[in-house]
Amino acid sequence: MAYRVLGRAGPAQPRRARRLLFAFTLSLSCTYLCYSFLCCCDDLGRSRLLGAPRCLRGPRAGAQKLLQKSRPCDPPGPTPSEPSAPAAAAPAPRLSGSNHSGSPKLGTKRLPQALIVGVKKGGTRAVLEFIRVHPDVRALGTEPHFFDRNYGRGLDWYRSLMPRTLETQITLEKTPSYFVTQEAPRRIFNMSRDTKLIVVVRNPVTRAISDYTQTLSKKPDIPTFEGLSFRNRSLGLVDASWNAIRIGMYALHLESWLRYFPLAQIHFVSGERLITDPAGEMGRVQDFLGIKRFITDKHFYFNKTKGFPCLKKTQSSLLPRCLGKSKGRTHVQIDPEVIDQLREFYRPYNIKFYETVGQDFRWE
């Protein structure tokens, strides 16, 4: 039948055949063009979201002229998250484990995995500055006082204060007043029961004098150290309600922490050894945090003027780094008899503290 129709067409047969061939070719080209767009739709969506140039799959014969103005898509290969992927095609990866995201260079804001919780005038600032040298630690420079003063602001506010870290880095902050805040252990436990705690302790008598010296520099009109330390000096009755005295009763405060955290999660730094052997003390801190011993003797020198160790200059700092002028103040002179009375007061607390933590700090 087909041959008869074509045969009847006579002279029109070549023209009709050419039209049928052209329509078939055009239909085939359009079909291929649609297929190309469908194959590349995912790439187009991603390109628009990322602000990248639009791209199409490699054109062929019939669609060559229609698509020649479009940039060909990158050839099949590794996904953008793989290291070998071209930089131009790879979007910034999203780090897991947090509601916040960031590039690999900047990292992510996370709640701290470790806290320096105390004690005031024990050497907490020195530990913070020393540990910040470690490439696997990022620490907040200021004291946020979240678990004692700002708890009502919520964990999102607290997280927003933290420095950005990579997944391989530890986020850390210090607020020495946490150690003597009754609610702090429970609040930190509610944040994360795995939080590692660092407590820097110092001879409680020396610590109290240092505390008073700092307060005196700000409030010159306060009573004498002796007047604040005793309810009745002639009877040797120490005023344990005065904060400078109460902070040094370490065993008393530790009881609150041990209700929530095992002793293995609390590391105690000796404020005295931090001065005489900073590398040794920081080595133990690094072991406790589970990071490589990066901070060693080569990072320290002893500053005779200040009377404590300072950090040597590094590649990122042309000058040595020492604690500020508020550190290393000359203590006020205290009557030796007062010092002896305070030593007797602290003795039972010190002994209990030694027994609890399994270390003798030799303060007697």
UniProtKB/TrEMBL annotation:
<keyword id="KW-0472">Membrane</keyword>
<feature type="binding site">
    <location>
        <begin position="327"/>
        <end position="331"/>
    </location>
    <ligand>
        <name>3'-phosphoadenylyl sulfate</name>
    </ligand>
</feature>
<keyword id="KW-1015">Disulfide bond</keyword>
<feature type="transmembrane region" description="Helical">
    <location>
        <begin position="20"/>
        <end position="38"/>
    </location>
</feature>
<feature type="binding site">
    <location>
        <begin position="121"/>
        <end position="125"/>
    </location>
    <ligand>
        <name>3'-phosphoadenylyl sulfate</name>
    </ligand>
</feature>
<feature type="binding site">
    <location>
        <position position="210"/>
    </location>
    <ligand>
        <name>3'-phosphoadenylyl sulfate</name>
    </ligand>
</feature>
<keyword id="KW-0812">Transmembrane</keyword>
<keyword id="KW-0333">Golgi apparatus</keyword>
<dbReference type="InterPro" id="IPR037359">
    <property type="entry name" value="NST/OST"/>
</dbReference>
<dbReference type="Pfam" id="PF00685">
    <property type="entry name" value="Sulfotransfer_1"/>
</dbReference>
<dbReference type="GO" id="GO:0015012">
    <property type="term" value="P:heparan sulfate proteoglycan biosynthetic process"/>
</dbReference>
<keyword id="KW-0808">Transferase</keyword>
<comment type="similarity">
    <text>Belongs to the sulfotransferase 1 family.</text>
</comment>
<keyword id="KW-0325">Glycoprotein</keyword>
<dbReference type="GO" id="GO:0000139">
    <property type="term" value="C:Golgi membrane"/>
</dbReference>
<keyword id="KW-1133">Transmembrane helix</keyword>
<feature type="disulfide bond">
    <location>
        <begin position="310"/>
        <end position="322"/>
    </location>
</feature>
<feature type="binding site">
    <location>
        <position position="202"/>
    </location>
    <ligand>
        <name>3'-phosphoadenylyl sulfate</name>
    </ligand>
</feature>
<protein>
    <recommendedName>
        <fullName>Sulfotransferase</fullName>
        <ecNumber>2.8.2.-</ecNumber>
    </recommendedName>
</protein>
<feature type="active site" description="For sulfotransferase activity">
    <location>
        <position position="121"/>
    </location>
</feature>
<dbReference type="InterPro" id="IPR000863">
    <property type="entry name" value="Sulfotransferase_dom"/>
</dbReference>
<dbReference type="InterPro" id="IPR027417">
    <property type="entry name" value="P-loop_NTPase"/>
</dbReference>
<dbReference type="GO" id="GO:0008467">
    <property type="term" value="F:[heparan sulfate]-glucosamine 3-sulfotransferase activity"/>
</dbReference>
<feature type="compositionally biased region" description="Pro residues">
    <location>
        <begin position="73"/>
        <end position="83"/>
    </location>
</feature>
<feature type="compositionally biased region" description="Low complexity">
    <location>
        <begin position="84"/>
        <end position="93"/>
    </location>
</feature>
<keyword id="KW-0735">Signal-anchor</keyword>
<feature type="domain" description="Sulfotransferase">
    <location>
        <begin position="112"/>
        <end position="347"/>
    </location>
</feature>
<feature type="region of interest" description="Disordered">
    <location>
        <begin position="66"/>
        <end position="108"/>
    </location>
</feature>
